[in-house]
Each structure stands twice: as C-alpha cells, then as structure tokens.
Amino acid sequence: MDSSTALREFLEYIIGQLISQPEEGAIAHELSEDGTHHTFLVTLTKDDVGKIVGKNGLTVSAIRSLLIAAAERDGQSVSLKVVGPNEAPVEQDGT
Q1: What b/e readout covers 30-60, taking b as 16+ CB neighbours within 10 angstroms?
Q2: 38: which DSSP letter?
Q3: Domain boundaries, the chain
Q4: Architecture of the domain spanning 3-83
Q5: Cα-atom radius of gyration of the chain, to the nearest Å?
Q6: Average pLDDT per consecutive 10 residues, the chain (95 residues; last block may be shorter)
Q7: Do residues 14 and 63 lie in contact, with contact meaning Cβ atoms separated by under 8 Å?
Q8: What is the pTM of this model?
C-alpha cells in the first residue's frame, strides 16, 4: 500500500469514529508535484465540524499530530484542512 492510500485510510478511520454523519462527509486529497506533501481537505456537516475541531481546536490538533507522525515515517509531510458546507478551511497549518 502506498503512503497516500495509507494516510487517507488512517484519516478516514479516525474521522469516521468521531462524527455522527459519516455519509455526509468527504475527504479530498492533493499530492504535491514532487510527491512529498499531502494536503487533505475534510468536508463535514456543521455539527460534525464542531466535533472534529473540538474545544479550542484540541481535537483537530491531535488528529493533525497523528497524521504528521504517520507521514513522517515515509519521509512525507501533510496538511489537514477541515471545512463545513460553504465554509473556509479551519486551521490550515500542519507542516
């Protein structure tokens, strides 16, 4: 399994365990031209965004830390953006 697939499945599992409407969520993935930086955009319902962001952003920060650690194993870097319907990304720094 390549690192893109592994990171996406890892993120899907974590997010899926925390939200109440997984069928309404979507994860988009972009890989940089040099193949070393992954950007994940997670789109969720408004209520589920609140669950993922957590109090003072602690939950999304923990998810981002786990994702960064998993990516670094393969010499990769990663960014995670979480958005609700028609919203701007929440917490864009993850590199």
Answers
A1: eeeeeeebbbbebbbbeebbebbbeeeeebb
A2: E
A3: 3-83
A4: 2-Layer Sandwich (3.30)
A5: 13
A6: 88 94 92 91 93 93 95 92 77 46
A7: yes
A8: 0.83
